[in-house]
Amino acid sequence: MSGRLKLKAPANSASNLDDNVNERILSECHGIYTDKEKGLVQLAGDLGLPLLPPRKKITVMLMGNHSAGKSSFINWYVEEHIQRTGVAIETQGFTFITSGRKRESLTFLSSTRTYINFCLLLGVADYLSTEISSSRQKKFSLVTFIDTPGLVDGDMKYEFDVEKALIWLGDQVDLIFVFFDPMGQALCKRTLNIVEKLNEKNNEKLRFYLSKADEVPQENDRQRVMMQIVQELCKRPGLNKCGFDMPTIYIPDPAKPSRCLNQIDEVCQTIEKTINQTVQNTLNHLEQDAEVIAERIDVKLAEDR
């Protein structure tokens, strides 16, 4: 396999080279599993072993109250205006934003069986869309974002069980970003309830951010908001034992300079670390799966003799 992964270094930055190498590794590993004639999935199936191919990208789900800046963050990361943004509840379904060869908008998710089950089990097929962008900014070629419905309290009704949908997705994704908007419904009970349930099985995936932090003019006001959010989270069973880290982030705008500390680069670093860990995990699983298949073949040969 090592011979297949050798790359000719392109004339670009070290960061882009790392992206190309990671992309090639994940793509080639996926191909080793899914080759129709001699892939590991086919071979394992013939031997009675259940085996799933690895993903070629990591998946990041963004959730929070409406107008928390989820769509704005995606547009900033991709450096393309893909998602609508505004004060109104713009995102009322689930949008998968992923990279591809050309810009496309699909009304239904053309994806894996996993997400087809998502549609069938939770009745969200009519509320799914996919946005494909050819952007190569940051680490986008190795990331799929899931923009989720804005959460509100009160009489707001969703056409599907939004709580079950978010919890189900939380089990599938690699990272869960929770955005708290200090100027909006940062203490939305629906958001806190879902976070509490997600924490039961996926606490290692959860990351909390105080979004739109530049809209709070005074530092002491920002600290007060953060303390209120942390206090509310700590009241929830299971969350009160966690140490909360809540970086302050906002979309940088040269026309509106702010003295507020912007830790949005930490979000990018979290994504990059998860990509690197996924590459290592994929290689480890490939080695383990190959060994299991080899052992099963030896058993079958012995039985034949």
TrEMBL record:
Any one GO molecular function term: GTPase activity
Gene Ontology biological process terms, A to Z: mitochondrion organization
Keywords, ordered alphabetically: GTP-binding, Hydrolase, Membrane, Nucleotide-binding
UniProt subcellular location: Membrane
SUPFAM superfamilies with a match to the protein in the record: P-loop containing nucleoside triphosphate hydrolases
A cellular component annotation (GO) from this entry: membrane
Keyword Membrane: yes
Domain of life (superkingdom): Eukaryota
Major localization class: membrane
G domain boundaries: 59-205
Name of the protein in its database record: Uncharacterized LOC114658621
Organism annotation: Erpetoichthys calabaricus
Gene: LOC114658621
